[in-house]
Structure formats: C-alpha cells, structure tokens
Fold this protein.
Amino acid sequence: MDFNILSWLIWTPVLGAILIVILPRNRMHLIKWIAVFFTGIQLLLSILLWFNFDNNIQGFQFMEKSPWIPAFNITYMLGVDGLSLPMVGLTALLSFLCVFVSWNIDKAPKGYFSLFLLLDAGMMGVFLSLDFFLFYIFWEVMLLPMYFLIGIWGGPNREYAAIKFFLYTLFGSVLMLIAVLALYFSSGRTFDMIELMSTAPTALSQISWWGFSGVKVVWLLLFIGFAIKVPIFPFHTWLPLAHVEAPTAISVILAGVLLKMGTYGILRINFPMIPDGTVWFAGILAFLALINIIWGGMCALAQTDLKKMVAYSSINHMGYVMLGMSAVVAAGSKYGSNIAAAELGMNGAVLQMFNHGTITAMLFILVGVVYDRAHHRDINGFGGLASKTPIYAAIVALAWFAGLGLPGLSGFISEAMTFLGAFPVYRNIVILSTIGILLNAAYFLTSYQKIFLGKLNEKYKDLPEINRREILILVPLAILVIFLGIYPTPLIDIMKTTMSEIIFRVEASELLVK
C-alpha cells in the first residue's frame, strides 16, 4: 500500500469530529450518520491493514516517520506489528458499533459524538505510536474526552465517577512521564521506541536512584502508570463506579479498549525496553494476576447491580491476561528454556485481550438493552424474562457462557492458553487461579437464573423484545466469539512472530536483577 494508512486510521475520526463541530446543533440525524461514516471508514481501513499484514515479518510494518520537533529528537513515527494489529482492529470495530449503541443519545449529541470521535483517535494513536513522546500525547489526549463523556452523559453520580477516573489516570500519567524522561536522558536523548529497545536495557543498568537500580525504578514507574488503566489491584477502585455511571457505549469502550491499553503498554514498553525488570517482577505480576482473578470474581459474585457485576468481571478476566504475560520468564534457563510455555502464555494473553474486548462489549450492550426498558439494573428485581423476551434471553446466554469460559467460545481458548503457559513456572498460582473459573460460573449463572428463569415478574409482562438495531450491533461480536472459540488460529498467526520477538528479548537479558 502506497498511502499512509496508519495516519488515516488515526486522523479519520478527527476529520469527522471537526465536521460535526461546524454543523448546526439541530442537525441531530446528520451528526449521527457522520459519526457512522467516519468510524466506518476507519473500520474498513483496519480490515485492509489486516489483510495486507505479513504474519512472518519480524518488526514493524507500514511504518511512517517524519521530523516533528527536531530540537528534541521528537518524531511523528507510526508502525504496526502482531501486538498492535489486534488492538487496532478491536478499537475500530467497537468504535463503529458504539456509534449505533449511542443512537438514542439526545442530550447535546453534537458534543457527544465529536468527543467520542476524538476518543477514538486517541485510542488508535496509542496503539500505533512508535515515538514515546507521541505515545504519551495520545495517552493523555484520550483522557479528556472520556472525562466529559462520563461527567456529562453519565448517571446520577457521574461527576464523582468522572473526577475519580481522571485523578487516578492522571496520577499514573505523571509517573509515566517521569519514566519517559528517565529513558530519554539515559538513552541518548531519544524517544524512538525501537531504538530504546536496544539502548535502554544497558543504560538503565548503569544508573541508580535513591539507592535503587534504575531498572527497578523505571520499570515500577511505568508499571504503575499502566496498572491503573488495566486496572490491577489495588488500583482498581475507579473502574466499577466509572462503568456504572458511564453511558452504555462508553462502558463498552472502557472495558473493551481502555483496559487493554494498560496491558498493551506493559507488553510494548516494559517487556522489551526493560527486560531485566521484567524478569525481576514476573513473579509479582503472577501474584497480582491471582489477586485480580479471585478478588474480581468474589466482588462480582457479591453484586446486585448487573452493570457493576459485569465491571468486576472485567477485573477478573484481565487477571488472566496478566497471568499469561508472567509466563514470559519460562523461556529463561532457570525454567529449562521452556520457550513453548512462554509462547503459549504470551499468545494467550494477547488473545485474551482481544477476546475479552468482544465478550465484554456484548455484556455491557446487553445490560444497556434491559436498562433502557426496565430503567433499573437490580438483578433481584427481574424474574422470568425468558418467557417474555426469548431472543434477548438467548443472546444473553451466549454472552454469559462466553464470559464464564465455556469450551467452544472464545473466552475458553485464551484462558486455557494462559494457564498452560504459566503452569510450568507458577504452578501453585495457576492452580489457585482456577478458582476464578468457578467464581465466573457462579456469578454468571446465578444472575441469569434470577433475571430470566422462574415465574415471570408481572411488572414486566409488557417488556419489549430486543429490537433489530440492537441485534445487528451484537451479531458481529457474536460471530467473533463463536469463530475464535472454534478456530483461533488466524488471530494467533497474526501475533505469534511479535510475541516470539518479545520473549527473545526477555530471554536474552543477562543482567538479571536480584
């Protein structure tokens, strides 16, 4: 392809946002269709990128590089590899679908859809940036639209939820900025991520701060910044409130894309740039994954608010991603150079990132469907809805079973790969983590029984069935959940070369931090 497709992926929604801003506010219908058009173009570009991507090439493809601020060696540098491509596709798909999820937004739609498109551009920029300064700019740009989308269009406690989200994320961003500056000044004054992967390991090993190795300090600063976004315990408390108060489409983006940015950042930056820190911290990462899995599952089981239950399930499911990531050290000599286990864990982690994005999108959309009709989310306040809304009940059953990891659906294969990869290294942690599977089944099946089975609650004898627009939104996600549950090979083939390269960088690290 001889055109800058990566730039078009980022800036297409910005063009849509500009066009919406200059339109009169009373052109509500046109505003929505403009958002559809520009997110649709972005989705088509991501599909084109996917089919032109070469799975067997190491490194980045479709790279774009031009000077931006030469005085500080800052460049506009973009690229895509097997780690970023699945996230690009996921972002484009969910952004397009969420425009239709937002179709009934009638409160200041001009502001809503313009901010949504800016959020889309920010997310895409994070996944495509190869200059650390540019990466950080996109990371911060994304924060402001999300703050307003929750704070203006959210629920009764939207202001508090938006402020809490903003402060948590900003705290992480400050720590990340310190780490970015440390990498810049210690590694030859460059923000080039590819160059930093070569120079940062040696440069950081030669400095110390406050008596601590530069490797440990910078790794932890970056990790905390990304951990807040995942979110990893104990930085998770912003998530349930933000989800409960956010509009349905924004909950989908939060869980489907924003959480993945945290694990993406760790895999893109911490692992290849600071491999010694990765080896040092891998055991702690596995332990934190266990806490996320058990704590998230137990909290979900205790909820009576359906949306909050799904929010806590995301904490649980991101724990599996972290568990798979921790398997990277299996390739080291300490564990018999078990490269196969490391590849299983790492590929499983990225596959889980993608699969969780599609599954949790279905979950939040389905919660929004019943909330729009019943105007509450109390699990105990329903009963027997399957007899009144059988199509809706069937789609919810598919999403719920995918969420609990039923074999044959996409959630199962990615979770199984993370367990298989981590088991040779962290056997006890993996065994304990399987309790999360039981917790998943408990809260999903219990909520389904209370909402859909038994005697019909007479309050909902006239409850409308799910409509055509809502079904059409869910169909692409359902197809992916079923297809990748049966045949995940196409997605694994996309990521495996990049994951092998990251594993090699960690394996080759000789400066193991004690």
